[in-house]
Amino acid sequence: MSTIATRLGKVRGLDSGNVKSFLGLRYGEPPTGPRRFLAPVMASRWRGIYDATQYPNRAMQERTTGTLGQPTAGALSEDCLFLNIVTPSSKGQLRPVLVWIHGGGFINGSANEYDGSVLADQGNAVVVTLNFRLGTFGFLDLSSHGSKYEGSASNGVRDLIQALQWVRENIEDYGGDPNNVTIFGESSGGSLVLSLLAAPSADRLYHKAIAHSATCAFMPAEDQTEKLAKHLGVESTEYLNKLRSMSAQEIVDLKLRFRVSVDGKVVTRPTYQAIMERGSAGVPLLTGTNRNEGTLYTKGKDAAQDHYPVVNHYLAAEMLCGEDPEQYLTALQGTYPDASPGKFHEMIWTDMFRRTCMQAAELSSLAGPGGWLYRFDLPANLPEDSLLGATHSSEIAFTFNTFANPGTNAYAFHDRNDAVVRNVAQQWSDTIIQFSKNGQPNSGGLPDWPVYETGKRNCLIIDDGFKIEPDPDSVHRRLWGG
Asked: Which member of 90, 187, 365, 394 is catalytic?
């Protein structure tokens, strides 16, 4: 164990190989009791020695396991505003900082599922992973119930901004450079990365962004007062009091679903608009998707499911930022007339993430900071995942290079003993580290990777090797009108 002195007080962490881990550092006061549904409050100093040797509480959620079913440390609690830090050292020259935002559909997941130890050691970087409010606690719009609830639809985003502010004020004590911070995340975590691009209060708290398999903010926040009051059996005037009096588990049991929204106070405009408005004052963006995103949701099976038609329409509308998706759906069916219901559903999932990341990369290049687009194609090769191909979230283990840590609790779809897997993971994680250092991904190991821009549309393909391919999405791009 190691004890270091920080500006907030002394803190005890874990020594693990070449890195030190400080787990469960509180960045926000408990958002409980009268603070439920309100903006976060910065955590204060502590007395004595802070024990940072155990994983912290995870946000309240439906899952008791990790996002992909793996055992995960940390109790479920409304008191969840904690972060974990892995650092090579608290001394010496300040290091680049990577701040990870987990996925889980805005309702599940935690920082505790991700192992930053390899990335920190390999890149001489500081890796921070965040827990933040999820579901109803983090994304319910209560703005019609008084000024103090304005922005409540983005409380989860506010938590991230609070954590980034904490990092700015305190990360030097852990060896990190507050002037070189990269935010990165996957799925809903990637969506939150893109939403932060449109949150002015976060603008100077990070300097680069990486969004894996993301959607973007474009829809206004939705006031659900009437609908939920009816569901809870109360008058609209008693709705807020009812929510504040319910237990955290009772609120989770409502099973509400959320997306990131433009609330007008925290996230002030759509992502694409924000990228263009910020122009050269914005940040470099590395983004991309996986070749077979949708197989995670079909398990690679062809059979029809009752929910497919409604979900297909929703996903396609999301892809098109709220536009009518019927023309796209018809064109997709016409292009693949023999596709099974399962394969059709998979393609829509894949297109939703793909179009979003392509648009964000293209606009980032047009605006000035630069946008780089990848596609991860290396198929899963564990027997239980053999039908999934390069499925949603399968690139995460490569981003963190967790294959190099045999003791990790992180989930992987690939065999860690496979030489190709280990080589690709090493090179891709080196690229992530390179981008975090100077805002461009090119280094010795990969072919030269140009920005993604109208015309050439150069994309990095990650398979058993790496190659640059011009416009690999031309067929589907025509289907969605891109």
From this structure: 187
